[in-house]
Amino acid sequence: MSAERDTIIEIKNLIKIYRKGHIEVTALRGINLEVKKGDMLAILGSSGSGKTTLLNVIGGISISSAGTTKVNQQEISTLSESQLAKYRRESIGFVWQIANLLPDLNIIDNVRLTMFAAGKFKRGEVNDRAKKLLDDVSIIHRAKHRIFQISGGELQRASIAIALANDPQILLADEPTGELDSETSQNIVDMLRMLNEKYGKTMLIVTHNPTVAKQCKRQLTIKDGVILKQPLKSGIEHIDIDNEGYLKIPEELMSMFANKRVRVIQTRDNEIKLTTEV
């Protein structure tokens, strides 16, 4: 498989500006990102950092202000409203922090409804597939229950089954453990990893929890609408720049240069390299 065909998401110079009256808020500032098929990517960041906006752009909920966002080599910002609806319905599965199941339906009917809406399955397949998905997330015994009859962890498991019901290429999860206790959160992460390995679904998981992020195959951090550099080999997350433009280099990294003069080099790729002067 070629590198191009192996890439499912390719984002270049993505900018997203929200306009509220005469006020403009830049949520994403020149994002560049490539995601391979079958990846499980954690997106870390504090509230307001731009991580949910990035998911919304990839999911076709929000359209970028500039730059390109390609999914399977298709530029999604050029799609019409009907094409975007089809894209979301067939290619994307969403898991939200607060589950959005229909309260008037039981769990398995919520799964079935999503499958019918996708229009990808024969009527005879729907029931068997719904049961299989609920079994995959270990709540088949809750199939006939409604949302007020199950726990928060079970509700989130149901949400994941529903997100997978349309057999999406990409699963987007926005703080899927945000409302759960630590033990239940761990169970949800373990289940997502199992599903990622079993079905090979590409997963992007937004979280503010480093413990959750470390269990994904890959992690990145967004701060003020910009992706910070990938973790260094020493395990240090990133090097910050303070408000006056000075590098804030962690003591752990500086100790590696023990009493040597350090030279800072900025490469053409906008990377920062530290070397010792000879």
Largest sheet: 6 strands, mixed
Order of helices and strands: HEEEHEEHEHHHEHEHEEEEHEE
Query: Cα distance, first to last residue?
Result: 44 Å
Number of helices: 9
CATH secondary-structure class of the largest domain: Alpha Beta
Q: Determine Rg (CA atoms, Å).
A: 21 Å
- Lateral strand order in the biggest sheet: 6-7-8-3-9-10
User: What oligomeric arrangement do these chains adopt?
Assistant: single chain
**What is the arithmetic mean of pLDDT?**
85
- Counted up, domains total 2
Q: Percent of residues in beta strands? A: 25-35%
Q: Segments where pLDDT lies below 50 for 5+ residues?
A: 231-238, 241-245
According to CATH, the homologous superfamily of the largest domain is P-loop containing nucleotide triphosphate hydrolases
Helical fraction equals 25-40%
Shape: globular
What is the CATH topology assignment of the largest domain? Rossmann fold
Question: In terms of structural class, how would the helical and strand content be classed?
Answer: alpha/beta
Can you name the CATH architecture of the largest domain? 3-Layer(aba) Sandwich
